[in-house]
């Protein structure tokens, strides 16, 4: 029980913020060389704001999942780009972040789902290598998702 609570706290206060930093790193890396500081920048600015929005994102997805699994999956893809939006603009309000992500994913949720499924083989292969393969697969996934974000942002916003 204590382990579960600690895991949830760790997820909300560390992992969610690190993910925003990773997305920031990959978005900036598209245009210029970056450094490790881009990954920890969310801890230096707007930390609690990012924690709050990512908490709400996870909470809403969980609540929608209580209805059935499918609504939760749909909401997961509706809120897919919230971490990217926060990586580019940490000052976004909750309403702006949710609205922009919803606008970007409108009509694209199935495409995003198929895009994520395209990595399934790589994830399975990486797991067979004792997890070491994940060191190569995860950056590939983050880079691919960053490209999708930029394309949809240009097209939808």
UniProtKB/TrEMBL annotation:
Q: Which residues cross the membrane?
A: 6-26, 55-74, 112-137
Q: Which UniProt keywords apply?
A: Membrane, Transmembrane, Transmembrane helix
InterPro entries xrefs: DUF975
In its keyword annotation, does this UniProt entry include Transmembrane helix?
yes
On the tree of life, the source organism's domain of life is Bacteria
Instruction: Indicate yes or no for the key word Transmembrane helix.
Output: yes
The record's Pfam families line, in alphabetical order, gives:
DUF975
Instruction: Check the record and name the PANTHER family matching this protein.
Output: MEMBRANE PROTEIN (PTHR40076:SF1), MEMBRANE PROTEIN-RELATED (PTHR40076)
Q: What's the protein here called? A: DUF975 family protein
Species for this entry: Candidatus Scybalomonas excrementavium
The root-end lineage is: Bacteria, Bacillati, Bacillota, Clostridia, Lachnospirales
């Amino acid at each position: 029980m204590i382990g579960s609570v600690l895991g949830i706290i760790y997820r909300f206060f560390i992992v969610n913020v690190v993910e925003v930093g990773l997305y920031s790193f990959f978005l900036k890396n598209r245009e210029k060389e970056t450094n490790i500081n881009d990954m920890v920048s969310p801890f230096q600015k707007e930390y609690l704001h990012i924690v709050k929005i990512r908490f709400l994102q996870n909470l809403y997805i969980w609540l929608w999942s209580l209805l059935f699994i499918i609504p939760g999956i749909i909401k997961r893809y509706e809120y897919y780009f919230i971490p990217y939006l926060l990586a580019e603009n940490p000052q976004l309000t909750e309403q702006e972040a949710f609205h922009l992500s919803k606008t970007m994913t409108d009509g694209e949720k199935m495409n995003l789902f198929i895009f994520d499924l395209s990595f399934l083989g790589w994830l399975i292969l990486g797991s067979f290598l004792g997890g070491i393969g994940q060191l190569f697969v995860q950056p590939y996934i983050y880079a691919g998702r960053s490209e999708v974000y930029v394309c949809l942002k240009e097209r939808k916003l």
